[in-house]
Design goal:
By secondary structure, the protein is mostly beta strands. The chain is 11% helix and 32% strand.
């Protein structure tokens, strides 16, 4: 189990499972939202995020933020509905322990960011028919989305 929270400490949470999949996203939206070169997103089932203190507020984009300091904690994605969240790994207390499985939107990657050659990298999102998830990961996604 890993714990994390917002900048001001008003919201604390715990994830009770390892993420399904982790990506480093270099798209311009993630750059703007984080004020950084990329975001690291951990795909995890909503019911595996235990809210310990505080309640994040959801905005019109499906982002869940602390009402006090506005830290973006996790978000929904239209492709996955409300049962899967994309947790911002930087909000975990020991975020350095979570390593991306792949890099997305490398077409807008900052030129000084060097990607590990051992990880898959995609110009945008993985294409139709590209297998990213193992059978176990596919099973978790399907179960969370009610198809398992």
């Amino acid at each position: 189990m890993r714990e994390g929270g917002c900048y001001c400490g008003a919201v604390r949470y715990r994830i009770i499972a390892e993420p399904i999949y982790v990506n480093a996203c270099h798209c311009r939206d993630c750059q703007t939202l984080t004020g950084s070169a990329f975001a690291i997103n951990a795909m995890i089932e909503d019911d595996r995020i235990e809210r310990l203190t505080g309640t994040p507020e959801r905005d019109e984009l499906g982002c869940f933020r602390c009402a006090s300091c506005a830290t973006l904690l996790w978000a929904s994605h239209p492709m996955f509905g409300e049962t899967i969240r994309f947790l911002r790994v930087g909000t975990l207390d020991q975020s350095e322990a979570i390593v991306p499985d792949a890099h997305f939107f490398v077409r807008s990657k900052h030129p000084w960011v060097t990607l590990p050659p051992s990880l898959p990298a995609f110009e945008t999102l993985p294409g139709e028919g590209e297998t990213l998830f193992s059978a176990a990961q596919q099973s978790r996604v399907a179960a969370a989305m009610g198809r398992g």
